[in-house]
C-alpha cells in the first residue's frame, strides 16, 4: 500500500511526459513482465481510459494486490461454499452489515436478491423461478423515476414491476403480492420518495427494500450507509470504484436474505443464478480489493484526481474558444470530472470528431460525452497518463482552430 502510494506521488511530479515515456507509463505494472503481448497478437488495441468505469471499456484495472490474490487462488482447490461462507463473514464485518456475499457483478446481485425474497431459499421455489411463481409473491414496486435498464435483472425472476410516483401511490400499490420495493440510489434526488422515507414505508408494511448502489463509491461510507439506514439488501459493483475483479459484485444485507440468495446461486445447479458463477479467484479477489479500498487514503486519491483534471482543464482552455466545466456528479461516479465544449465558430470539429481523433491517435484515448461535449474523468487512468491526455487534447483542438 505505502509503496504504491509513494509511487503515485512520484509520478505526479513528473514533467509533462513525451510520447515514449508516457506510453511506458500506460502499461500497468502487473502487465509489464509478460513475454507475450496477447492483445497485440489479437489485434486488440489498448487505450488510456479517460472515460471512467464503463463495462464496454472493461471498467477498471484491479489493484496489483488483487491480481496476486487471484494468482494465489488459482493454484489450489477449495470448497466454493466454504470460501463464500468465510469471505462473506469477513466482508460483513468490514462493511458493518449482517451478512454479505460475492456475486457476479451488481447485476447478478439484483437478480439473486430478488430471487432471495421470492423463494426464501425454499429448494422447490428456487427450482421453479422464473416461470412458475405459484405460492410466491409476484410484484416489485419501483418509482417511475428510478426505472433504469439494470432493472431487467429484477425482471429476470419473472416478476412484474409496478411503477409508482408518490408516497400515496406506493402505499396503495402494496398488497399481498408485493415481494419487494426496489430503489436506484443514483436517482434519490429525483424521486418523490427519498431513501429514508422509502425504507420507513417498507418497514411499516413489512416489505423488503433493495438499494442499487452499484456505482456509488466513493465516498467509502456509502458501503455501510444504506444497510445502516435500513435497506434489507444493498448491492455494489466490485469492478467499478472498488477496483476488484471486473465481473464481481457485492450483495449486502439481512442474514436470512443473503442465505436465501446463496441458495439461488452456484454451486446449486438448478437455480436462476447458475449462469452467474463467481470463481474462487474472484471471490478472494473481491475481499482483497475491499480490504485495500478501506485502508487507502481517500483524500489523497481525491487530491490527485483534482490535480489531474485541472491539468487537462488548463491544456484545454489554452486553446481559444474552448470552455470547460469541472464538476463532481452527485451520487454515481462521484469523482472530479471535466466537460469540454467549444465555440463552433472558432473550432472546426464536432465533439464526435475530437473523440475519434483521440481514439485513433497514439496512444489511443477513450473519452465519453454526447453531441455537445467531450467528457472525461481521470480516476481510471494510470497516474501520469493525464499528461498525455492533456497534450493530445490540446493538439487535436488546436489543429481544428479556424484560421
Ligand atoms: C454498473 C451498474 C450495474 C451493473 O453492475 P455490474 O457490476 O457491471 O454487474 C447495476 N446498476 C447500476 C446502477 C450500475 O451503475
Short descriptors:
globular; disordered N terminus; Aspartate Aminotransferase, domain 2; 7-stranded mixed beta sheet; 2 domains; Aspartate Aminotransferase, domain 1; binds pyridoxal-5'-phosphate; 3-stranded antiparallel beta sheet; single chain; alpha/beta; 403 residues
Anisotropy-based shape: globular
Q: Which strands sit side by side, in order, in the main sheet?
A: 2-8-7-6-5-3-4
Q: Could you say how many structural domains there are in total?
A: 2
- β content, as a range? 5-15%
Characterize the main sheet: 7 strands, mixed
Can you count the helices? 16
Distance between the termini: 50 Å
- Mean pLDDT metric: 93
Protein name: Aminotransferase class V-fold PLP-dependent enzyme
GO molecular function: L-seryl-tRNA(Sec) selenium transferase activity; transaminase activity
Organism: Chryseosolibacter histidini
InterPro entries: PyrdxlP-dep_Trfase, PyrdxlP-dep_Trfase_major, SelA-like
Brief overview:
The protein contains 16 helices and twelve strands.
Written account of the structure:
With 403 residues, this protein is α/β, with parallel strands linked by helices. It folds into 2 domains: 4-61 and 297-399, Aspartate Aminotransferase, domain 1; 78-295, Aspartate Aminotransferase, domain 2, CATH 3.40.640.10. It is 42% helix and 14% strand. The protein contains 16 helices and 12 strands. It has helices at residues 2-12, 19-26, 38-42, 64-74, 80-94, 105-119, 123-128, 152-155, 167-173, 195-205, 222-229, 255-263, 280-295, 298-317, 351-360, 385-399, and strands at 48-49, 99-103, 139-143, 160-164, 178-184, 209-212, 233-237, 249-253, 322-327, 337-342, 365-366, 374-377. The strands form 3 sheets. Strands 2-8-7-6-5-3-4 form a 7-stranded mixed beta sheet, sandwiched between helices. It has a 3-stranded antiparallel beta sheet with strand order 9-10-12. A two-stranded parallel ribbon has the order 1-11. Helix 8 links the parallel strand 3 (139-143) and strand 4 (160-164). Helix 5 (80-94) runs parallel beside helix 13 (280-295), helix 6 (105-119) crosses helix 12 (255-263) and helix 14 (298-317) packs parallel to helix 16 (385-399). It is globular, with a radius of gyration of 23 Å. The protein starts with a helix and ends with a helix. It binds pyridoxal-5'-phosphate (PLP). Residues 55, 105-107, 150, 212, 214-215, 237, 239, 249, 332 line the site of pyridoxal-5'-phosphate. Pyridoxal-5'-phosphate binds at residues 55, 105-107, 150, 212, 214-215, 237, 239, 249, 332. Keywords: Aminotransferase, Pyridoxal phosphate, Signal, Transferase. It holds the Pfam family SelA. InterPro entries: PyrdxlP-dep_Trfase (IPR015424), PyrdxlP-dep_Trfase_major (IPR015421), SelA-like (IPR018319). Belongs to the SelA family.
